[in-house]
Amino acid sequence: MAQPKYKIATIGSHSGLQIFKGAHDEGFQTIAVCKKGSEKPYKMFNSADEIIIVDSYANFPKIQDLLIKKNAIIVPHGSFVTYMGYQEVEKLKVLYYGNKKILKWESDRYLERQWLKNAGLKVPLLFDRPKDIDRLVIVKFMGAEGGKGYFLAKDEKDFNKKIKPYKLRKYIIQEYIIGVPLFIHYFYSSLTNEIEIMGCDIRYESNVDSLGRISARDQVALPKIDPSYVIVGNIPVVVRESFLPRLIEMGENVVKTSKKLAPPGLFGPFCLETILTPEEEIFVFEISARIVAGTNPFIEGSPYTWLKYNIPMSTGRRIAIEIKNAIKMNQMKKVLG
Ligand code: AMP
Questions:
Q1: Going by CA atoms, what residue is nearest to atom 2 of ligand 1?
Q2: Listed residue (222, 230, 253) closest to 121, CA to CA
């Protein structure tokens, strides 16, 4: 039987432009699902062959039948999972690139930690109770809205003062690691079982990345400046080459462990969110089991994908190639979850 003509669909946000560009490069038609008013970039950059408007992303399941009729394959990204919640994503019937069962493991901070630890990675300490705080900690809220409201505390008293406005929210207390935050982007092929490094980035976050522009004297004089971690954009980084063997091994271990936790395991794009200390220790504070926005600077490819492919290769395009190969090899089951 002839293969249907598949289309690539996702929510118009996050890394949608990259996903659609990659899909076009590989000959797929694209569908952007947008909230009214957010469709402009997908028109401006000729990204979407079709735009479906929804009132709210929570209504995504309601347009599923339409997407199914159009032979759409959903490529999930960060906003897709955040807007819908992993339980809703798990229920989707429309074709979906990736392993849905792994989303639970990245969405729950405790499960995520277990995964990373099982993979032999170093993770920051967690403090169960505020009275245990014996060093600088970062307090993070569950269901992060891009780092909004996170705060630092140095002891229980400091914590109690700063938590007041957020009393009703769920939080975790994590050791604050001083070093360089580095985001490492990987791709694991479920067709060839090979892992690739697609690029690295650092995030630019407001206001923490601009505090250094104010002298310590002026910071002290101001009544209250707490750092916050609201992401504004991403900056490409090429890491010291001697770090690469460790970074590759970390990615391999995460994939290997995921096969036991949620068979058939993690595949496609993923990201390890790390901090590198002056002692060259690498702490992993988060894993994202799908494409992250830190791949967006590399729509034309990164230095690493250039080495491997010699043509512009974004993560979005790599996904499209994987889907195309699966179609050619009659192995769609291996890329759909
Ligand atoms: P997250 O919501 O976990 O991605 O964290 C948002 C931001 O907080 C990160 O991009 C880092 O800048 C910072 N951050 C998170 N965890 C830590 C940590 N354990 N130590 C130092 N900085 C952190």
A1: 147
A2: 253
d(CA 282, CA 277): 7
How do residues 161-202 score in pLDDT, each as one tens digit?
999 988 788 899 999 999 999 999 999 999 999 999 999 999
Cα–Cα distance for residue pair 148/325, rounded to 1 Å: 40
Global model pTM greater than 0.85? yes
Distance CA 318, CA 305 (A): 10
Q: Distance between CA 54 and CA 65 in Å, rounded?
A: 14
Which residue minimizes the CA distance to atom 13 of ligand 1?
A: 229
The mean pLDDT value of the chain amounts to: 94
Q: Is 179 in the pocket of ligand 1 (CB under 6 A)?
A: no
Ligand 1 close to Cβ of residue 231 (< 6 A): no
User: Which domains are assigned to the chain?
Assistant: 1-96 (3.40.50.20), 98-122+179-205+232-337 (3.30.470.20), 126-175 (3.30.1490.20)
Q: Which of 150, 285, 286 gets mutated to test ligand 1 (max ligand atoms within 8 A of its CB)? A: 285
Label the pairing between strands 282-288 and 95-96.
Answer: unpaired
Distance between alpha carbon 71 and the CA centroid of its chain, in Å?
Answer: 26
